[in-house]
């Protein structure tokens, strides 16, 4: 197992969207609510929750808001009747690009209407459940700042990573199965790697290369619009630009 020059099967595993926006406080708070609801409401015993809280703190969400979100997830907050659902939406953008959307919503009709409008206005269409998800695989991804590749190879082997990828800006991403993410995280921390972000991400099995500038513009505008919606947590697409 090895890095760029040594991995026989290493490929670019996702399309990086230059215009990707930071998550809003609403999106970050909802991620905490769902993580607390799906497991114990204690970050020490809930890796998903701990990751959601870390992201919220890094974005400047107040401790009071974090505690309120924890209480909502645990069912101990009395002033809110909204019930959030995790829903995955799927569709196609310009050029037949597959787009996978993860949402947290208290009104699925509202969310579907917003998404349908975003697709329609940007040369795409919202599809049925299952129409594109077969093109993706969910992975745990850990993003690192500047790293030494030889040390990363050693730690990746120890942490049972599936692969890693070095980038020109000298950072790296390490990929693993969802169930192994906590083990890999602990291993990288043990080796003092500068961890920037930990997340679950849908990775496309194959990417479509977009060469038409108008299609590229439509795709970036669509993804930008989708990511700006409070109900939307993550957007993944299977395209690369030249």
TrEMBL record:
GO MF, one example: DNA binding
Main location: cytoplasm
Domain TACO1/YebC-like second and third residues, every copy: 84-239
Domain named TACO1/YebC-like N-terminal: residues: 5-75
Keywords linked to the UniProt accession: Cytoplasm, DNA-binding, Transcription, Transcription regulation
Coiled-coil annotated residue ranges, if any: none
Source superkingdom: Bacteria
Compartment list: Cytoplasm
Annotated GO biological process: regulation of DNA-templated transcription
Keyword field contains DNA-binding: yes
GO CC annotations on file: cytosol
Protein family (similarity comment): Belongs to the TACO1 family.
Identification of the protein by name: Probable transcriptional regulatory protein I4641_22685
Source organism: Waterburya agarophytonicola KI4
